[in-house]
Structure formats: structure tokens, C-alpha cells
Specification:
heterodimer, A: alpha/beta, Aldehyde Dehydrogenase, Chain A, domain 1, Aldehyde Dehydrogenase, Chain A, domain 2, 2 domains, globular, B: TIM Barrel, eight-stranded parallel β-sheet, 8 strands
């Protein structure tokens, strides 16, 4: 429940801006089958496990489809197919031929953008505006970008020989299902590796749609295998002796398990894990644009973003102003049906995740922080959380230390540059950070001292296939995207 | 009247991030306005129009025709609102006032050596007083952009105050001519000066200079109004003018207004469109909502 706010500042009224007539995207663009099998060796095959599980729409709690659950034998079958394809076709193929396949996939993703966007939103709960304007175009761009690299590896790594690793096992999360599949598959194929990919159990549908495209694109059988399942399936992949590389995006806890499991083997790994990013507003910043950046930083994709700007630091002289502006801005956010084109914040991805977020909301209040939530109403069915900010937060509060992975922001004040650098770096994570100031020299000073893989200046949550992405410390290691994203899939001799 | 406690240093007006403000402005155009929201929005936009004719060749006849149009936008659609005001040169105020009678439609007059503003203060004050004496309900003044660019903010401030005094009961719209100020930082600074000097409205453009109103410029000004409201509790009205000729764009502006300043600004007391051809496009859209098909331009009166 929203607490009443103490300070008596003037409030603007935004009720009518949230109550627009419904503008739902049509579901007819999406063809979803009743049941999906495992995509192995270019064919959809029934699982040896004989088991299936449901995937639901988190916005309505309705079942969308049932999906095969791969066991260790299924994983083995997929890895064998990938190995076979690697040895017999993919590693021998001329790089420019490989590129043609990747371009073809990119174009087909673009052609079926609407279908992908609708399925992404139905399966994951994110607003259709985001899947339409961000997820799907960005996924296509990744394929286009890495297709271009396939026959230019000798220029990417001059005077070195770039050799593929073999079979890559890729495990991706539920926050950007299609985009993460593209982030993983595109560089692996461009560098001449074959792939076994497992999407998250709550959001498998767009990866399976991608499998259909890969089949239509006539990619040689076994080059890309897409198998579904939960943690046990992932563990079977990590433990499989014939996988040469693990690429994982997900929680730090699972990342640690993977790290332990592959210790002593010659498997390579890239891990892209959690984050608790500092977003820092200096008093000379363009405040209205900074507030907008804070909103994009923490409420984008319901806060299910590993690089979300979840810790806001505001210089004390503008603290009140920023909080006031932020509260008014939050009031104008539209929370609700993800399929409505006007929705800003959709459904939380799963019941389980909603419980995690709600637990943190009560922890925050118990810790003495002051909670403020938008006054918007929530749909009766489905998993939803109001956009939430906490003020009166201490650096030692759990809500300021632990990754919540939801639309929850903590706000603290600071006085000097040194103080905020210390506080921003005072976390086990180091994935991203944001700096808001009108002063160029301050930007350079901050970006060199913030221990984060990505530092955005006067913007936030901007992604581009040409730009590397990855973390420090417990946010993982290895880079994805850009030229840097090629190296983890290569032996450079 | 709410007393303003202190006048800030305008050289310290907040800076605007160009990329950020343009990105934010483009977000409003992504809103999908359908069905009853669309009809309500279109009617509201119609009711916010300052129907404008500002030409050297304006005549009594032309102004009278425009006034009649203001009151009877499209009688084929019963229950339509009128526009908010007619906007004319000072010499046409009397004609417009008479033609509009007690309809409630206001008469706005440009003044202060519109559109350039290159005249002495004395001339500008007399220009204003003339328009007010002829019966103008609202005065649209231009700021001295030259002095503003020279950094003489006090001159600009004092001039606005002087015109405000000359307005008496008439509401004062201060035209910044954002197309001549060029940067968002300067638009913001000029907005602050105008509001602290006594503007009732801040207005983007004369319509004589390109670019005229744009969404990002209007957003910068709406944010200035919001900050002024936060500081003083006093509401200032906004008028983007020039370049808004399509109903869809007008709806985007209303979405922006609604999400930046909230519903208390969503009426013609606090927001106007300065436009000459917008009304007909809105009428065409309203008729389409009603009948399901578009009618040709010949079915709507041209003025």
C-alpha cells in the first residue's frame, strides 16, 4: 500500500492521462502452437524425457502452450547434433557463406517482427511498445551486425589466426528472451561455432519461433539446436563433456554454480550476471531529462534488466526537486495490459518473481525506508507491481545492496564527487552506471573511476550491437556485443 | 494574485539536454489515442484554438468571416464547441469584437510591433494600449530577441513588465519566437524571464519565422511552467503557435500537456493552439469518427 507523503509540495494531477481508451495490439499476428518439441538437428523432435511443461501469459495467467522438458539424454542428443554439424559442415564452410545464413535469419526476424513482438509480450509480460520498438529490432540488428563480421575475422584480430571453439552451450534469461538469443547465437555462428541454446522456462516461445525461422532459412541441420527446460536442463548442458564453451546470462547465484561446475575442465565461459547500478545526478544536470533517464533506467521492462539503474544518487542540493519531479513523472506512467500500445509498465514475468519483489518491498519498509508508489490501479488478474521508490535509504539497507529485479528504486543523497564514487562502487556488482551532469570534464572523471562495465552519460539503457556489454566483479566476465563479443567464441593463435 | 518572493538570476536557468528532450517529446507521439479518447481530444483541441489571421491584406470582411467561422465551425456536426479566440492585428480588434458579440469567444490581438518587436518601448506600450482600448481580451506580445541575444535580460524583463502593466485586465501572451532563439537552453531562459516578469501565457512563435512550434520546444516550455508552478504555486498557460495543422499532431500535443502538467491544464484557460488551418483537419477527423468515412475538403468551409 502506498503511504501518504509527508512533504507538502504541490502535486500535479494525472488521473486522466492514465485512463486512455484501450488500444490493444491484435493477437492475430501471432501463431502459437499447442505444443512445442525440441529443435534438434534441424527438426522438431519429441523429448526423450516424454515430459512437457506449461508456459503462461503472466498478464492473464492463461496457458499459452506446453513446451518439452529436455533431460540429460535430450541434451546429449542436441550436443551430438551440434558436434556433428560443426565437424561436417559449419567449420569447413567459407566464412562468407556462413554470413549469408546469418543475414537471412536477420531479414526473416525483421519480416516477422510483428509476430515476434506479440509473442514476446504474451509470453513475458513486457509492454508491446517495448517488444515492438526495442526487443525485436535490436535482435535483428545483432544478427545483421555479426553477419558482417563472419568473413572479416582476420581484420578483427590482425596477425592472429581466429579458430572457432566448437560447440557452444548457451543459457539465456527471461527478461529479453529473443534479444538474448540473438546476442548469443549471432556471434557464435559468425565465428564458426555451433550452438545448443536453452531459453528460460517461463519465456521459451520466441526462441522456438526463432527455431522455426532457422529451419526455414535452411541453416544446415544441427548448427543451431534449441532445447527447453528449467534448471536441470541447464545443469546437464553445463556438465556435458563435449561442450567447449558456456555462455550464460542470468543470476549471480547460478553463475557461481556454473563457475564451480566447469572448474578443472577446459570449457571457456562468459557470464553476464546481476547488477545494482548506480545512477548519479549532479546538481548541474539537466534535471527533467535526468528524471526521464531515471524512469527509463529503473522502469524499463518492469525493472527486469540486469543493468537497471536501481540505486539513484542525487546531489543533496537538488534532492528534493528531483524526488518531486520523479513522483509526478511516476504518476503519469501507465501500468497494465502489456498488449495495450499505451502501456508503459507491463506484467511482472512470473508469480515467483512478483513474490521476490514484494518481499523486498516489505524488507525496505521494515528497514525504515520511506516507500512511495504510483497511485495507479492494477489489473485484477496477472502479476503486477506499482512503480516504487524508496527514500530515506541507508547504504547498509538490503534494498540498496541486493538486486531486486523489479520496478523498485532506492534514492540516496550525496555531497561530493569522491563520496558518490565510493558509494557507487560499494557493491559486489559492477555491470553498469549512469552519470548526469552538464559538465564534460566531470563525465570523464566519473567514467574512469566507476567500476562498471558500461557507464552511460546523460542517458541510460542504450544498447547497440557495436558496443560491448559485460561486467566487473560479481556481475560476471567476458564481453558480448561489438568487436569484443567475437573473442570469447574464438581461439586466437 | 500570488506574490513572487524573489527574482532568480536568469543566467542560471536550468540547462536542457537536447538529446533527452527530443527523445522524450517523441515518446508522446507513440501514444495511441482511440475511440472516445480521440473524440474528446479532438473536441478539446478545437476548443483550444486561437483562430488566427495576421496578414497585411486583412480586411474587415475577412475578419468578420473568420469570426463567423469561429462561432459556427461546422453546423453539420451538432454540439461542437467554439474555438477559444480569434487572433488579429490591433486594427482589426474592434471589428472582431463586434462580430463575436457576447459569444464568449475571446479577441486576442498581437501587439508590440509584431512580429519583429523592433520598435521603441513607448511605441510598444501605445500599440498595446490601443489594442486593449479597442476591446482586446488578450494581448500577444513579442520579446526583444536582439536584446535577449545580447544578454540584456533585464531589458527584456522590464519590457514584459511594462507591457503587462499596459494590458490592465487583458491576459498577456509572451511570444518568445523560439525559431530565433535556436537553442533549448535559450528557450528555457526566455520562458523563465517571461513568467517572472508577469506573463499569463508563454507562446512559442509568431508564425512568421521557421521553425515555429515543435514538440520538443513546447516540452521545454511546459517544463519551465511546471518548475514555476512548483516554486510559486502560480499557473501559467501555454500556447504553441505555427506549424500545427493536423489533428493528429494536435492530439500528440495534448498527450504531452496531459503527461507533463496534468489535467488541470487541459482546458482553454491554460492551453491554446495558435493555428489557422488546424480547425478544418480536426473537423474532418471528427466527421470521420462519426460517419466512419472521410469527407473531401470541399465539405468544410475554407476561410
Amino acid at each position: 500500500m502506498a503511504k501518504t507523503v509527508k512533504n507538502n509540495t504541490l502535486k500535479l494531477k494525472f488521473e486522466s492521462s492514465r485512463n486512455l481508451a484501450p488500444a490493444p495490439e491484435s493477437k492475430s499476428a501471432a501463431k502459437i502452437s499447442e505444443r512445442y518439441d525440441l529443435f534438434i538437428d534441424g527438426k522438431f523432435e519429441k523429448p526423450l524425457s516424454k515430459k512437457y511443461f506449461d508456459t503462461i501469459n503472466p498478464a492473464t495467467e492463461e496457458r499459452l502452450a506446453e513446451v518439452a522438458e529436455a533431460n540429460a539424454a535430450d541434451v546429449n542428443k542436441a550436443v551430438e547434433a551440434a558436434r556433428n554439424a560443426y565437424d561436417k559442415t559449419w567449420k569447413k564452410m567459407a566464412p562468407k557463406e556462413r554470413a549469408k545464413y546469418i543475414y537471412r535469419v536477420a531479414r526473416m526476424v525483421q519480416e516477422r517482427a510483428r509476430e515476434f513482438a506479440v509473442i514476446e509480450t504474451l509470453d513475458g509480460g513486457k509492454p508491446i511498445r517495448e517488444s515492438r520498438d526495442f526487443d525485436v529490432p535490436a535482435a535483428a540488428n545483432h544478427f545483421f551486425y555479426y553477419a558482417g563480421w563472419a568473413d572479416k575475422l582476420e581484420y578483427a584480430f590482425p596477425n592472429r589466426q581466429a579458430q572457432p571453439l566448437g560447440v557452444a552451450g548457451q543459457i539465456i534469461p527471461w527478461n529479453f528472451p529473443l534479444l538474448m538469443a540473438a546476442w548469443k547465437i549471432a556471434p557464435a555462428l559468425a565465428t564458426g561455432n555451433t550452438v545448443v541454446l536453452k531459453p528460460a522456462e517461463t519465456t521459451p516461445l520466441t526462441a522456438l519461433k526463432l527455431a522455426e525461422i532457422i529451419q526455414e532459412a535452411d541453416l544446415p541441420p544441427g548448427v543451431v539446436n534449441i532445447i527447453t527446460g528449467a534448471g536441470a536442463t541447464g545443469a546437464a548442458m553445463v556438465d556435458h563433456p563435449d561442450i567447449n564453451k558456456i555462455a550464460f546470462t542470468g543470476s549471480t547465484d547460478v553463475g557461481k554454480i556454473i563457475q564451480r561446475a566447469i572448474a578443472g575442465t577446459n570449457k571457456k565461459a562468459t557470464l553476464e550476471l546481476g547488477g545494482k547500478a548506480a545512477n548519479i545526478i549532479f546538481d548541474d544536470a539537466a534535471l527533467d531529462q535526468a528524471v526521464e533517464g531515471v524512469v527509463n533506467g529503473i522502469f524499463f521492462n518492469q525493472g527486469h534488466v540486469c543493468c537497471a539503474g536501481s540505486r539513484l544518487y542525487v546531489q543533496e542540493s537538488v534532492f528534493k526537486t528531483v524526488v518531486q519531479k520523479l513522483k509526478d513523472r511516476m504518476e503519469s506512467l501507465i501500468v497494465g495490459d502489456p498488449m495495450d500500445k499505451n502501456t508503459d509498465i507491463g506484467a511482472i514475468n512470473s508469480k515467483q518473481q512478483l513474490e521476490v519483489i514484494n518481499t523486498y518491498l516489505s524488507i525496505g519498509q521494515k528497514e525504515g525506508a520511506e516507500m512511495y508508489q504510483s497511485s495507479c490501479s492494477l489489473p485484477k488478474k496477472g502479476f503486477y507491481c506499482r512503480p516504487t521508490i524508496f527514500t530515506n535509504v541507508a547504504q547498509s539497507n538490503r534494498i540498496a545492496q541486493e538486486e531486486i529485479f523489479g520496478p523498485v528504486l532506492t534514492i540516496q543523497s550525496f555531497r561530493t564527487d569522491d563520496e558518490v564514487i565510493e558509494k557507487a562502487n560499494n557493491t559486489p556488482y559492477g555491470l553498469s552506471a549512469g552519470v548526469w551532469t552538464d559538465k564534460g570534464s566531470k563525465i570523464f572523471n566519473m567514467t574512469t573511476k566507476l567500476k562498471a562495465g558500461v557507464v552511460w552519460a546523460n542517458t541510460y539503457n542504450k544498447f547497440d550491437p557495436t558496443s560491448p556489454f559485460g561486467g566487473y566483479k560479481e556481475s560476471g566476465y567476458g564481453r558480448e556485443g561489438g568487436l569484443h563479443g567475437l573473442a570469447p567464441y574464438l581461439n586466437l593463435v | 494574485m500570488i506574490a513572487i518572493k524573489s527574482i532568480p538570476d536568469f543566467s542560471l536557468s536550468p540547462h536542457i539536454d537536447q538529446v533527452g528532450v527530443e527523445e522524450r517529446a517523441s515518446r508522446f507521439t507513440k501514444r495511441s489515442i482511440k475511440n472516445e479518447s480521440k473524440i474528446n481530444g479532438l473536441k478539446l483541441a478545437l476548443n483550444m484554438i486561437d483562430l488566427t489571421t495576421l496578414e497585411g491584406k486583412d480586411t474587415d470582411g475577412k475578419v468578420k468571416q473568420l469570426c463567423y467561422k469561429a462561432l459556427h465551425l461546422h453546423d453539420a456536426y451538432p454540439g461542437l464547441p467554439t474555438v477559444a479566440a480569434i487572433c488579429v492585428y490591433p486594427s482589426m480588434v474592434k471589428v472582431a469584437k463586434k462580430a463575436l458579440g457576447d459569444s464568449g469567444v475571446k479577441v486576442a490581438s498581437v501587439a508590440t510591433a509584431f512580429p519583429s518587436g523592433q520598435a521603441s518601448r513607448d511605441v510598444k506600450i501605445r500599440d498595446t494600449k490601443f489594442a486593449v482600448n479597442e476591446g482586446a481580451d488578450e494581448i500577444d506580445m513579442v520579446i526583444s530577441r536582439g536584446k535577449f541575444h545580447m544578454g540584456e535580460y533585464n531589458f527584456v524583463f522590464d519590457e514584459i513588465s511594462a507591457i503587462k502593466e499596459a494590458c490592465g485586465e487583458a491576459r498577456l501572451k509572451v511570444i518568445l519566437e523560439t525559431g530565433e532563439l535556436v537553442t533549448y537552453d535559450k528557450v528555457r531562459r526566455a520562458s523563465d524571464i517571461a513568467m517572472y516578469a508577469g506573463a499569463d501565457f508563454i507562446k512559442t512563435s509568431t508564425g512568421k519565422i521557421q521553425p515555429a512550434a515543435t514538440m520538443p520546444v513546447t516540452l521545454v516550455m511546459l517544463e519551465a511552467i511546471r518548475d514555476f508552478y512548483y516554486k510559486t504555486g502560480k499557473r501559467i498557460a501555454m500556447k504553441p503557435a505555427g506549424g500545427i495543422s493536423k489533428a493528429k499532431l494536435a492530439l500528440h500535443y495534448l498527450v504531452m500537456l496531459n503527461e507533463v502538467l496534468g489535467e488541470e491544464w487541459m482546458n482553454n484557460q491554460w492551453f491554446r493552439f495558435g493555428a489557422s488551418s488546424l480547425a478544418n483537419d480536426i473537423l474532418m477527423q471528427l466527421m470521420k469518427q462519426k460517419s466512419g468515412v472521410y469527407q473531401g475538403a470541399d465539405y468544410f468551409s475554407m476561410d
